[in-house]
Amino acid sequence: xxxxxxxxxxxxxxxxxxxxxxxxxxxxxxxxxxxxxxxxxxxxxxxxxxxxxxxxxxxxxxxxxxxxxxxxxxxxxxxxxxxxxxxxxxxxxxxxxxxxxxxxxxxxxxxxxxxxxxxxxxxxxxxxxxxxxxxxxxxxxxxxxxxxxxxxxxxxxxxxxxxxxxxxxxxxxxxxxxxxxxxxxxxxxxxxxxxxxxxxxxxxxxxxxxxxxxxxxxxxxxxxxxxxxxxxxxxxxxxxxxxxxxxxxxxxxxxxxxxxxxxxxxxxxxxxxxxxxxxxxxxxxxxxxxxxxxxxxxxxxxxxxxxxxxxxxxxxxxxxxxxxxxxxxxxxxxxxxxxxxxxxxxxxxxxxxxxxxxxxxxxxxxxxxxxxxxxxxxxxxxxxxxxxxxxxxxxxxxxxxxxxxxxxxxxxxxxxxxxxxxxxxxxxxxxxxxxxxxxxxxxxxxxxxxxxxxxxxxxxxxxxxxxxxxxxxxxxxxxxxxxxxxxxxxxxxxxxxxxxxxxxxxxxxxxxxxxxxxxxxxxxxxxxxxxxxxxxxxxxxxxxxxxxxxxxxxxxxxxxxx
Length: 562
Known about the structure:
30% helix, five-stranded parallel beta sheet, alpha/beta
């Protein structure tokens, strides 16, 4: 498959990859027709999707079955008046209908807007009106149905509501009763151009209102680097990425790049995450490739891995937040598998990564993906030297890099703020070592300036994470009359340590950080909590911690160790 889109399909080294990665861009590319339907023609009986849930129900879908199902759903959408350019929100959790809905929307040239099931009425109204949503397809669960129904009165562009069940209240179309009654699918004469909008994400955001990120129809080709190379997938792979379909990581790990490789996508439709559940599925279904944010690996290594058969795993990757080296080390010690880190955003595909031919450095995001022209820059726009902290940027030439977003929908000013003078500014701070590896520091607005020092939250978090008491932590800055800001740690303790929370443990953790990293970085304030505030995608919301601390610590010099 990938030979249709790449001049060279295998690489032996980073230098080979950098020199010879070259894409062949088809005219009017459409992932559903040009990848999925081609697989259905070439290998109709090959399993493409394996789905199971908390009740141990399971479904296996071949490429032919996905083609047939997506054709039926595409015809169904057309019968409801949904067509090219129409905005369709999908609130489907991990139900298998999400995959057929996505492919069907691609087939008719409509715009898919995946969204989380945790949205409130206010959230849905905001999205409906900002994006002029025409239709919503959602799970038939009371909470979701209620929020969607309540939002309709304030959403004048919304014409159609569809429930996939089990509940189908008045005012909603019944997906399962109506899809099979749709007429035979006829491919529209004109579906899309390459630069048409195919996909939109309201970014979960660690601050402010969500932004509307739009991608064109070439975006899936950009994920060849994600699925084929970074995930190291092949035709016999069974790949599991831990991600809700409302998060951009779902199309990174559960759709485009995986099916470009011809791998089987494994889906575990569950409500409450536990490391035990995930590892039992890996064991039962003989998962070969696994990708999850660092948080998941942190919980996995706190289990007794001897109780699980993970021998089917061939390759493991991580993204979403920077990986603490201590987590890498413990997972490698217990499984013999090296975690291969990657970095990207909702606005991009993978921009930095540790590819199979690259020796990983624990805690590093890896090397630039040659698909993008990556640099680190100072506030004045000049390039950083090795070892110097700067903002990660993408230099954009005459042609937009494959996989880079089109802009923020209906927000030219925000687009200009982040993408101007031929540079896209990611807002993430990192430094580069002498071997060209990039190391995450934090979001630009998360960097702490204390007594003249610039302190990245991740470097302090990594030091704290090496202490056995700490399961998770978040580092933020608290305003201080003397130092400008001081470092504060919000810590989730391991259950075995919770009864030891107090001044003595605070001092022990402070001394531990002083030993693990430069002493000036140690947290002068430590707060113990049961959980950290997070976005739906699992990223820590440091902005929420900072807002809370404005009242709790109005003058940090009065508390904590001086």
